[in-house]
Design a protein that fits this description.
Blueprint: E1 15-23, H1 25-30, E2 40-46, E3 48-49, E4 52-53, H2 66-73, H3 75-78, E5 92-99, E6 105-107, H4 111-116, E7 126-133, E8 138-143, E9 162-166, E10 171-175, E11 181-183, E12 187-194, E13 200-203, H5 219-223, E14 236-237, E15 247-251, E16 256-262, E17 266-269, E18 276-282, E19 285-289, E20 295-299, E21 304-307, E22 313-318, E23 322-327
């Protein structure tokens, strides 16, 4: 096992992405310091991709990449029951999104369909947590069966085939591969997803991209990736969860998400089987770890912290009600 100073909670630098639908609200709502003055749609918080690898911002591994730390710590970081994906990458990708305008209507393939279409990435299942929603905000979540019968044409008249669903602050929206979806503005989102960037764009509201041209659509692949399901439109809302215990929010083949409202000191135990990612969605606190719990890091809104599987026992001390997701 590595020296103790090499097993500690890892924080990361932000990787900001300019998007036509983005804005500057990550500064206002999440206190992020954004570069330049252009619209920022995404901040990649934990990622392991060829051209976007998270850089550690604290401790012994500061300025090292996540990939380097995975190579060095191996099972002590990932856990005995977890595996990297088939491209030898960390299997989960976490983002913060400023949805200031319409996103395209899109669908992600499942693993089998991604292989069928010879994609370099696997399929993509994801989860949204609505950190903030303006009044009367809606998203696209699902579609009528007739949408699958379209050929290679999608126009404004086909918008009636989409299901528009209201969302509010605190909502959790699970989006399995094959589900048609779109964010439509007015939200700040925490996105937890399978490590993939395969997106089939079905409709882009007839607008042009940052370069002044219409963005590419992927109707052939997209329409053949749709898997209509009988999914409930009444999403989980964390403010309606009264339990003081761990509550499972999502469990799928790519990740598991537990929710906890931490109102008093909480003792946790890393079991060596799996890494754990803490996502702070409300409040502040402190995480104590190491021998005699003598080391600490702060927990602030929108912090994403990766805990090695072999970290050992740790304590979370809330300043007030500290709401977190535990991702594994």
């Amino acid at each position: 096992m590595p020296e103790n100073n090499r097993l500690y909670p890892l924080k990361f630098n932000h990787i900001f992405k300019e998007k036509i639908w983005g804005g500057r609200r990550l500064e206002k709502f999440l206190n992020l310091s954004l570069p330049g003055s252009h619209p920022i749609g995404e901040s990649w918080e934990l990622c392991d991709r060829e051209n976007d690898v998270s850089i550690i911002s604290n401790g012994y591994y500061k300025n090292c990449s996540l990939k380097e730390v995975i190579d060095e710590l191996s099972v002590d970081l990932i856990g005995t029951d977890k595996k990297l994906d088939n491209l030898h990458r960390f299997p989960v990708l976490i983002k913060l999104l400023d949805i200031s305008n319409l996103l395209s209507v899109q669908v992600h393939p499942d693993n089998e369909t991604a292989i069928k279409f010879k994609e370099s990435d696997p399929g993509k299942t994801e989860m949204w947590y609505v950190l903030h929603a303006e009044p009367d905000t809606k998203i696209v979540y699902g579609c009528k069966n007739e949408l699958r019968n379209l050929k290679n044409y999608f126009s404004k008249e086909h918008e009636k085939l989409l299901d528009f669903v209201p969302v509010k602050t605190g909502d959790v929206v699970f989006i399995p591969a094959g589900q048609v979806h779109a964010l439509l503005g007015g939200t700040i989102i925490l996105e937890i997803q399978q490590n993939s960037d395969v997106t089939y764009r079905l409709y882009d509201w007839n607008r042009t991209g940052l370069n002044g041209k219409h963005r590419e659509l992927h109707l052939y692949k997209g329409l053949r990736s749709i898997k209509n399901r009988d999914l409930s439109k009444s999403f989980t809302n964390i403010f309606e969860i009264n339990s003081d215990c761990m509550t499972q929010i999502v469990s799928c083949g790519s990740f598991r998400v537990l929710y906890r409202n931490i109102k008093s000191d909480l003792l946790c135990r890393a079991n060596k089987k799996s890494y754990r990612i803490i996502c702070v969605i409300d409040g502040t606190g402190t995480l104590l770890y190491g021998k005699d719990k003598a080391s600490k890091i702060s927990l602030n809104l929108a912090d994403i912290v990766l805990l090695p599987a072999a970290l050992g026992d740790y304590n979370i001390i809330p300043d007030n009600n500290l709401k977190v997701f535990f991702v594994s």
